[in-house]
Each structure stands twice: as C-alpha cells, then as structure tokens.
Design goal:
The complex is a heterodimer of chains A (265) and B (320).
Chain A lengths: L2 E6 L2 E3 L20 E3 L1 H19 L4 E8 L5 H10 L3 E5 L9 H15 L3 E5 L10 H9 L3 E11 L2 E7 L3 E8 L2 E5 L11 H9 L2 E4 L12 H4 L2 E8 L7 E4 L4 H11 L4
Parallel strand pairs in A: 1-4, 1-6, 4-5, 5-11, 6-10, 7-10
Antiparallel strand pairs in A: 2-3, 7-8, 8-9
Chain B lengths: L2 E5 L2 E2 L2 E2 L1 H13 L1 E7 L7 H6 L4 E5 L3 H4 L3 H14 L3 E5 L2 H14 L3 E9 L6 E6 L4 E7 L5 E4 L14 E4 L12 E7 L13 E5 L9 H11 L2 E4 L1 H5 L20 E5 L5 H4 L7 E6 L6 H4 L2 E4 L2 H16 L1
Helix pairs in contact in B: 4-5, 6-10
The structure holds flavin-adenine dinucleotide (2 copies).
Chain lengths: 265, 320
C-alpha cells in the first residue's frame, strides 16, 4: 500500500488586507479575502519532498490535504492541490461556525482517522488564530507520537526524524510511524504551483464531508459547544503620531535626548 | 482556599523571569501552587517561595529530558489531580502552549493561549489576548473546566511576596505515549551574556538595512550601551546575518519590552506581530515612508550607519 501523508491546511483572512471580527466576535470571513495560511505551504512542501524521496526508492506515496472551514476554504485546498497534493477533503458544516481549538482538533482528528494516514504534517501555526497547538492536540487525540515545530524533517524505514529549535536548545527528535509532525518556516523554501499543476488541480477530487459523516454531534462544536468564549474585541487605538525627524547630522543625538526624556538613559 | 497551579519554567533550578510574573498574576486569583520538573526542580523552591508560592510540587525523572512534551503533561495532570486548582497558568511559548493544550484536553477544560493579562471577573477568569498582529485586543474566558491559560512574558511585573513554599515530592506515572518522541541529541544555546530576548526590558533589532553580518556589531554595541537584548528581522535571519533564535515576529519570538529600537527594518505585518505591544517604539530607517514609522513614538529618517554609532556614543558619554 502506498504511504499515506495527510496535510492539515487552514483557510485564513489575508494578513495584508483588512482583518476584522464579525458581530458575534468570530473572525469575519465573509468580507475578507482569504487564502491558504502561508505557514501551511511549508507543510505541503515537506509532504511533497517526503513523497518525492519515497518515489526515488520506488515507493508510492499519496498526499491528502484536509481543511475544516466554510465554503471558500476550498480555495486553500485548490492551492495545495496545485502545489502537487493528490486529493482533498473539505469538512464543511453549518454547525462548525465559531468552533474553538478543542472542537477543531476533534473534527480534524476524526477526518484524519477516516481518511487513513501514516504521517500527518501541519504548519507550525495558522496565521489567524496562531495558537500553534492543533498538531499537539491531534497527537493526543490520535494517540501517536508528536514530532512538532521541526525545522528539518525526514522519513526513513518507518522512522521520522527532525530538528526542533526551542527557547534554550536545539533538539534532535525521533519517533516511529504513524505520527503527527509540524514544520516551521525554516524547514525549506516553498515551491510555486506550476501552470501544469494548476491545470491538473482542477481535475483533482475535493470530497466534502459533514459532521454526520464523521459521527460528531453538532453540540460538540460551534459557538455553543465551545470550551472558550470571546467577550469583546477592540481595535487597538492608533498610536498618536510620534515624532519623526530627519537625521541632518544630529539624528543620533536627538534620539538620545528622546530616550533620556523617557528615562531610558 | 482557591489554589492556582503555576507551571515553572527553569533551567537547572534557575527560575526564569516569566514564571515570577505568572506567580504575580496567580496571586490575584488565589494561592499559587508551583510545579517544577526535571533536574534542579528542588532548587527552584526558594525563588518561588519569595514570589508567593504557598506550595512547590517537584518531580524529577529522566523522561522529562529524554522525551518530548508528553512526560511533562503526565506530571501536570498528576499535579492537577493532587491540587484541584481553580486554574492552570503557564508560559506562552512553543512548548508551553503544547503542554497546556494536551493538559486541557485531558482534564476536559478549554484553553486560552498568548494571554497578556488575566483577571478575576464575574463569570470566571478574564484573559486579554492580542490578535491579528496586535491590531486587536480580545477578552476571552474559558467556559468549561478549570481554565488553562498561557501567558506571554512581560505581561505582569514580578513581585516579592514571601510565602511558605513548602516542597512536596510529586509521584508521576508515565503513560504509554510519554516515550513516543525520543530526544536523541541536544545542543544548548550558547549564552551571549545579554538579556534573554523575550524577557528583556529593552530590545535593539536590526533588519535588512544592516546590510551584512559583519555590520551587526553596530546593533550589538547599541544594545550593550543600554543593557538590551538583540533582535533581528526575518530578512536579516534568512540572509544568515544573525541566528534564528533572535528573530522577532510572527514566526520568531514575540517581545513586549519597555523599549524597542528597530534599525533598518521596514515594519512588515509579520514583524509587527512580534513587537507591536512594546511600550515605546523607536525606529531608524532611511525611507521616510517605511511602515515602521506608523508605530514609532520617535523616528529618525536617516542612514543607520550614521545615526546608530552617534546614539551609542551619546549614551555611553551620558553614562560615563
Ligand atoms: C485571534 C484568535 C484567537 C483565538 N484564540 C483561541 C483561544 O484562545 N482558544 C481557543 O480554543 N480557540 C481560539 N481561537 C480559535 C482557534 O484559532 C480555531 O479553532 C482554529 O481553527 C485552531 O487554531 P489555530 O488557527 O490557532 O491553529 P494553530 O494551532 O495555530 O495551527 C496549527 C496548524 O493546525 C492546522 N489547522 C488549524 N485549524 C485548522 C482547520 N480549521 N482546518 C485545517 N487545519 C487547521 C493548520 O495546519 C495549522 O497550520 C482563536 C481564533 C482567533 C482568530
Ligand atoms: C509566513 C511569514 C512569516 C514571517 N515571519 C516573520 C517574522 O517572524 N519576523 C520578521 O521580521 N519577518 C517575518 N516575515 C517576513 C516579513 O514579511 C518581511 O519580509 C521582513 O520582516 C522584512 O525584513 P526587513 O524589514 O529587515 O527588510 P526590508 O523589508 O527589506 O526592509 C529593510 C529596511 O531597511 C531600510 N534601510 C536600508 N538600508 C538602510 C540604512 N543604511 N539605514 C537605515 N535604513 C536602511 C530600508 O529603507 C527598509 O525599510 C514573514 C513572512 C511570511 C510570509
């Protein structure tokens, strides 16, 4: 049987555009331009490289991308397919609106289990929620090793290896398969979809699954099922315009005066 | 009596500053009970007691260093059952968030990550978070179970508050998944002698404008004149001019110092995500339209190779 890679991808509001919250304090996904979270591109890239290195050994690999999100989230799947993934799963259900991280990890874990996997690859964090905990939660739920925040990853003879750069040390990690991995933006340059890839992506299947397909009760997810709630979202006040001066030869001295006035020196 | 469990971040018994900040937050919510794991756990007790820990649970076993994350979750779970705390607080960092999330799932609680404040409210603890590269401030609550909340460094001031700090050994039984991810080698980061980036009161950063690895000494000299930590933009890191461990931003460290000085950094959204909550922001950039000036309390439009050495000299002169 071929080696099964599953990549989690999230559809997020474009960081370069206006990001806001809707009246119910969930992310406004209707008025915002969305895209595949840039950090998930690194996960797709590493999955492609792992599949390619198996290909060189004559082994087969299949890459499935999965997302949980509203209708437009299909755009994120299409981008991943255009990069070279084989197949896509879109978990979409009215009841999912407002799901928090505990609920999201439940739905993703069920979808991954149902799809079948040897290795799950995620991005280090999504660019909207940015919690960076979904991969750890998936490992906990799926009861498989957690190989997260890797800046290097390789798979050989049923073993996953990688490097994790933490706060105080770099660690080399190793686990057996199946496992859940997440990769950082240090893991390697991401490829652009080729014209051929974009054309091929149009023909690749995107399966749509609902909560009932996964045996998940609607009460376990959504705003009402959430374990957390947001009470307020306020735009940070724009800073009152600071002072900007031209250097003119004494810029360093004027900066020093400013720092002194604020008691930093 | 309400107890609040605080997970201790320490290096061989030396408690890191963010943990002392957590104890200050925890004291607003109840009696802090600290959990310290691994080599040197016992040695943390004095510092923790000085900052308000009424009890210090300690456990050491090779598993904490030899396997990733899960042994610590097993220990935290054991501590949670022993204490039945009203909340669990820990540091928001890559590992901190992962430990917290797995604990929350096991104990049936919700989780809030990256809080910049935690206070008691009418319907339970209220956490403040910043969102979308710190363009928004959210308040949120955990509605199921004992809240598990991770807090960013520099979110509260550490306070001396002597307490009993009674040391209690904690017995931990490791589950099957504890040994799933082996640490086969580890290289400790070399100390630069400068303050830790996320904990520093002043951060001096350099970006693409610095132009070369060899020029970073200009940034370092300014940092040293102020007793500051050195940061870098991703452009500077990707060019190999400074180590990734010093990257500030969305995929690097998030810092919240009293003073942030950006040199030759344009101020892209991903960089802002990691420094926007700094109290005072200063920028030096030769492009008057650089977006970093929108954030700056004081900006100098000029060549950093002129401005920075002059500033450093001026600071050193005032000190001398
Ligand atoms: C500003 C903000 C703050 C939030 N704070 C909290 C909070 O404190 N507590 C809480 O419970 N929820 C919170 N949420 C909701 C939470 O972010 C979502 O439930 C989200 O789907 C999962 O978290 P993440 O985006 O942070 O993912 P991360 O853990 O940052 O993402 C890691 C990887 O998981 C995968 N992934 C995440 N979500 C999906 C998805 N829907 N489909 C496919 N793959 C996915 C991606 O591969 C991603 O790269 C917050 C959301 C926002 C926008
Ligand atoms: C998914 C993702 C994650 C990212 N994460 C991060 C992150 O964590 N941190 C981060 O920083 N970036 C991150 N980035 C990159 C970010 O988008 C920018 O590319 C980066 O911040 C630019 O760095 P810079 O400001 O140093 O370089 P530039 O944008 O090239 O700016 C250099 C500035 O230096 C000025 N300059 C040049 N010479 C001089 C001189 N002699 N004197 C004074 N000024 C001079 C120029 O006017 C210019 O404004 C991320 C990007 C992506 C897509």
């Amino acid at each position: 049987m071929s080696f099964r890679l599953v990549v989690t991808v999230k559809y997020v509001p474009d960081a370069a555009a206006d990001r806001r919250f809707a009246d119910d304090l969930t992310v406004d996904r209707d008025d915002a331009d969305g895209l595949l979270s840039e950090l998930d591109e690194y996960a797709v890239e590493q999955a492609l490289r792992i599949a390619e290195s198996r290909g060189q050994n004559g082994d087969d690999a299949e890459i499935t991308v999965v997302t949980v999100g509203p209708r437009d989230a299909e755009d994120a799947l299409r981008k991943a397919l255009a990069m070279g993934a084989d197949r896509a799963i879109h978990v979409e259900d009215e009841a999912l609106h407002g799901t928090d991280v505990i609920g999201t990890s439940l739905v993703l874990a069920k979808a991954i289990e149902t799809a079948g996997y040897d290795l799950v690859v995620s991005g280090m964090a999504a660019t909207d929620g940015a919690m960076g905990v979904v991969p750890a939660l998936l490992a906990e739920r799926l009861r498989v090793p957690q190989m997260t925040l890797l800046s290097e990853i390789s798979v050989e003879d049923g073993t996953v290896r990688g490097r994790r750069d933490g706060d105080t040390a770099s660690e080399w990690l190793e686990s057996s398969l199946p496992a859940v991995a997440s990769v950082t933006d240090q893991s390697g340059e991401v490829r652009y979809p080729s014209f051929k890839g974009i054309m091929a992506a149009k023909k690749k299947p995107v399966e749509s699954w609902g909560l009932s397909d996964l045996g998940i009760d609607a009460d376990a997810v959504g705003l009402s099922g959430a374990w957390t709630t947001v009470d307020s979202a306020a735009e940070r006040p724009v800073r009152s315009a600071g002072t900007v001066v031209e250097d003119g030869g004494v810029g360093g001295k004027r900066l020093a005066e400013f720092l002194a006035s604020r008691k930093f020196i | 009596m309400t107890e609040v469990l605080v997970y201790v971040d320490h290096v061989d018994g030396a408690v890191r500053k963010p943990t002392l900040e957590l104890l200050a937050l925890a004291r607003r919510l109840g009696d802090p009970v600290a959990l310290a794991l691994g080599s040197g756990a016992q040695d943390t007790a004095v510092a923790l007691a000085e900052h308000g820990a009424v009890r210090v649970l300690v456990a050491d076993a090779p598993e904490f260093a030899d396997y990733l994350v899960v042994p610590k979750v097993d220990a935290l779970r054991a501590a949670y059952e022993r204490v039945s705390p009203a909340a669990v607080l820990m540091l928001s960092s890559g590992e901190g968030n992962e430990i917290a999330a797995r604990l929350a799932l096991r104990i049936g609680s919700g989780i809030v990550t990256g809080a910049i404040d935690v206070r008691p409210g009418d319907d339970g603890l209220v956490a403040t978070q910043s969102a979308f590269a710190a363009a928004f401030t959210l308040t949120s609550r955990v509605t199921k179970g004992a809240p598990v909340i991770t807090v960013k460094p520099n979110s509260a001031a550490a306070e001396a508050a002597p307490a009993a700090g009674a040391v209690e050994p904690l017995a931990v039984t490791f589950g099957e998944s504890a040994t799933g991810t082996r640490v086969t080698a580890r290289t400790a980061r070399e100390s630069t002698g400068r303050p830790e980036l996320t904990e520093a009161a002043i951060v001096v950063s350099g970006g693409r404008g610095v132009g070369d690895a060899g020029n970073f000494h200009i940034v370092e000299a300014l940092a040293d004149s102020l007793g500051a930590a050195v940061g870098a933009s991703r452009a500077a890191v990707d060019a190999g001019w400074y180590p990734h461990s010093h990257q500030v931003g969305q995929t690097g460290k998030s810092v919240s110092p009293q003073l942030y000085i950006a040199n030759g950094i344009s101020g892209a959204i991903q960089h802002r995500a990691g420094m926007r909550t700094s109290k005072t922001i200063v920028a030096v950039n030769k492009d008057p339209d650089a977006p970093i000036f929108d954030l700056a309390d004081f900006g100098v439009v000029g060549d950093l190779f002129q401005v920075i050495p002059q500033l450093t000299e001026e600071i050193n002169a005032r000190k001398g």
